[in-house]
Amino acid sequence: MAMQTGCCSAAAVLLFLVVAAAGASVAGATYVRYKDPKQPIQARVEDLLSRMRIEEKIGQMTQIERHNASSAVIEKYFVGSVLSGGGSVPSEKASAATWQEMITKMQKAALSTRLGIPIIYGIDAVHGNNNAYNATIFPHNVGLGATRDPDLVKRIGRATALEARATGIPYTFAPCVAVCRDPRWGGCYESFSEDTKLVQLMTSAIIPGLQGDVSTKHPRGVPFVGGPKHVAACAKHFVGDGGTHHGISGNNTVLSFHDLMRIHMPPYYDAVIKGVASVMISYSSWNGVKMHENKYLITQILKEKMHFRGFVITDWQAVDKITTPPHKHYYHSIQETIHAGIDMVMIPFDYPEFVADVQAQVMRGAIKMDRINDAVSRILRVKFTMGLFENPFPEHSLTAQLGTKEHRELAREAVRKSLVLLKNGKGRKDGKPVLPLSKKAKKILVVGTHAHDLGLQCGGWTKSWQGQSGNGITGQGTTILEAIKSAVDKKTVIDYTEHPDKGSVSKNEDEYDYAVVVVGENPYAATAGDNLNLTIPGPGPEVIRKVCELVKCVVVLVSGRPLVVEPYLDTMDALVAAWLPGTEGHGVADVLFGDHGFSGKLPRTWVRSVDQLPMNYGDKLYDPLFPFGFGLTTKPADRS
Ligand code: GLC
């Protein structure tokens, strides 16, 4: 009996230990290791992974568009991530609270599933939280490259993270770390520069801004997101997106391995060192092989050699895009993509087919379970790291961060530092500098399509994917005309018109002290912006000619890239490259009127004609109109 008792009580102790270690019920409370924030992240990942069924794993790898993300769909497919495609908003003028409600509903659905794994909601906050009404819209990356100011760029990252979090969003598909080598590419304004080093400098600044600072002891390649005031970032588009033939979006990048590593790869290394949470793959190919199926670069270089431990995501519908000959079937595209090392698939609409296909292939052994486990571990690692399990819901206290005065001041600072002064008087009439302009002029002319249009001033990826013209679209903001009006003396008369043939423009040249001509490109993104001639769109050239022949003129060019200006340069008294400045037009007036000096430097080579393209800083034959790094300076005006 004693023996039996002894035997039984020893067994009971043993059983208790086993049960406790396995995380089962102890004293009535269920201990679940992955839910314990005190546990190391890797242990939580492994514990959760060990509990997951195949459909739950595939769900984690699936990112769908918000239009499809009903509670029923999230629950049925165990969806791991939801995105807003460009311009996909809950309603046109949705408030931060409306965004938060939408995400809360999705999150509740995700948390109601068996294992309660939160979704990660992603958006393209690429120059501020640019889909959200009343968000602060910062200059696009090309303008930030012109500032040469990494501290500023870091502060912009921090502000963008806060504005995304204000709408309940914890993940942005930014930064674009492309090294744009040919401005004919429609995505060129998303690139900080043609110069690898400058892109690296800005990458190393904006990622800590978005995600928070990694400590010097942070293990290389492990993702880092510093809590609910930061967001998970995404370095994109891996790799060589800015090097395609003729700058055609998604085209082939023909380069030796050495040149790919030298020109396009370094920013990814910096991103990995800064603990970037994810990397998005490029639609483009490298030497004929689609990047989405390039196992060598994704798995061997990025994951193994660089030790990247975050997750790799596809671009929008990219799996569909590789279903072209010689791939006869979608099935092969999925298989090759996942085998190449993709962890999360941005499959906005066709998720039922995708999920069924992956499951069937796993069952047949065509997709290895190890690969699925690796993908899911990476996604879970990011979710645990950023505290999504502990704080899955939008933080209401951050609502007021959308479009704050501080962020608008920051954007204004960025605008004034991004403007590049290309000509200031020299070679024309008396040759005297034209800038800074006088605030005390009697009468001035402001003219051009881009002078009073917030939509044009912001460019693509603003409220919609392609961007659009119009003053109401962004909510708050200041056009260049409005900024000029508030900068000049109250007594100064301003005539404004889009075109000198319209409105009441005086033909008497003595009537105006000077004219500010604001013209440029119309908004675009990606393929729609691919452009083989890079001329100033009409009626820009005609407006420049007519106005600059009449009166002393400053031309402000609003564009995502250098345009062909040489034919008109002689007629202009001054020329300013303003890039795509965003909502804070005051920054333009700040430097035009000398409250601050011009300091921006070209982040790109300014070619004379498109025949010269591609032409980049460091090329043997280098004969630009303005070289990389060029930018005249002015001192703040003395108003004493
Ligand atoms: C696009 C872009 C990519 C973006 C994604 C999601 O097609 O190439 O930069 O993040 O779709 O909107």
From TrEMBL:
Enumerate the GO terms in the molecular function aspect: hydrolase activity, hydrolyzing O-glycosyl compounds
Which InterPro entries is this protein grouped with?
Cellulose_Degrad_GH3, GH, Glyco_hydro_3_C, Glyco_hydro_3_C_sf, Glyco_hydro_3_N, Glyco_hydro_3_N_sf
Q: Does the record carry Signal as a key word?
A: yes
Tell me which domain of life the UniProt entry assigns to the organism this sequence originates from: Eukaryota
Q: Name one GO biological process term.
A: carbohydrate metabolic process
UniProt keyword annotation of Signal present: yes
Q: Protein name, please? A: Beta-glucosidase
Q: Name one Pfam family in it.
A: Glyco_hydro_3
Q: Which Gene3D superfamilies match?
A: Glycoside hydrolase family 3 C-terminal domain, Glycoside hydrolase, family 3, N-terminal domain
Q: Where is the Glycoside hydrolase family 3 N-terminal domain?
A: 54-382
Which first-to-last residue range defines the signal peptide? 1-23
What residues does the Glycoside hydrolase family 3 C-terminal domain cover?
Answer: 419-633
UniProt KW keywords: Glycosidase, Hydrolase, Signal
